[in-house]
Amino acid sequence: MLALEHILRTGRCAGLSCSEFGLAGTARDGRVEIFESRGLFDPGDGFSEPARRMLELCNAAPAGRRLHVLEREFAAGFYNSHTDQDYVLYASFGRPLNEMEQGLLHILGGNIAVALNNLFLTEEIVATQREVVLTLGEVVETRSKETAQHVKRVAEYSYLLAVKSGLSEDKAQLLRMASPMHDVGKIGIPDSILFKPGKLTEEEFNIIKTHTVIGHSILKNSPRRIMRTAATIALQHHERWDGTGYPHGLAEDETHIFGRITALADVFDALACDRVYKKAWPLDEVLAYLREQRGRQFDPRLVDIFLANIDDMMAIRATYPD
Question: How far is 227 from 133, CA to CA, in rounded Å?
Answer without folding.
Answer: 8
